[in-house]
Amino acid sequence: MSRPQCPRCLRPQSHCLCPLIPRLDSRTRVLLLQHPSEVNHALNTARLAALGLTNAELIVGEVFEDLPKLLNQPGYQARLLFPAEDAQPLPAYAANDQPMLLVVPDGTWRKARKMLHLNPLLAALPRVTLAEGGVSRYRLRKAPGPGALSTIEAIVQALETLEAPSTFAPLLKPFEALIEGQIAAMGEETFQRNHGDR
């Protein structure tokens, strides 16, 4: 028998995060393209980001038929937040007059690359990257490398770069509560044994 689920945050009703999710305005439009395998993930941070930002949209899929329409938002310049040799650092856009449509793939690195491969229009977008040295608060997962952040952490860092001095830290409140809840569920001893030496 499954536990009753909150229809908004998709968490069990007993662990609903909705009271912690802010409603933040941003000049930047955020388009989250989520791989279907992430939808039921316990730490679905893309959904938390989409719920917390008034100017964000979350679309689930592998192939996005509506991509031409989604990317052609009048008044916005579309950029893909994904590493590449020719990716521009986000601070270069901070003073730009035209707001950005920040396209963020959500999935494992492998699945995100597959999404780019299956959607040539997505792969062809100019790419932007975050400043190096970001440290993830995601204490339950071993990062694949330095600067590897969860989707919500990457969005917060990107928005704070593009829209300084505005802060988007409140977006991280439900994420941190989620992690604390997972640690509490596994027990401090198990957490320390499996994750404490990172």
Give a quick set of tags describing it.
198 residues, alpha/beta, Alpha/beta knot, globular
What's the short version?
This is tRNA-uridine aminocarboxypropyltransferase. The protein is of the alpha/beta class.
Please, could you describe this protein's structure?
The protein is an alpha/beta fold and 198 residues long. It has a single domain, classed as Alpha/beta knot, CATH 3.40.1280. The chain is 31% helix and 14% strand. The chain has seven helices and six strands. The chain has a six-stranded parallel β-sheet. Helix 1 (45-52) packs parallel to helix 5 (151-162). It is globular, with a radius of gyration of 17 Å. Belongs to the TDD superfamily. DTWD2 family. It holds the Pfam family DTW. Residues 2-187 form the DTW domain.
Q: Give the spatial strand order of the biggest sheet.
A: 2-1-5-3-6-4
Order of helices and strands: EHEHEEEHHEHHH
Largest sheet: 6 strands, parallel
Quote the distance from N terminus to C terminus: 36 Å
So, CATH architecture? 3-Layer(aba) Sandwich
Q: How many strand units?
A: 6
Family: Belongs to the TDD superfamily. DTWD2 family.
EC number: 2.5.1.25
Keywords: S-adenosyl-L-methionine, Transferase, tRNA processing
InterPro entries: DTW, DTWD2/TAPT
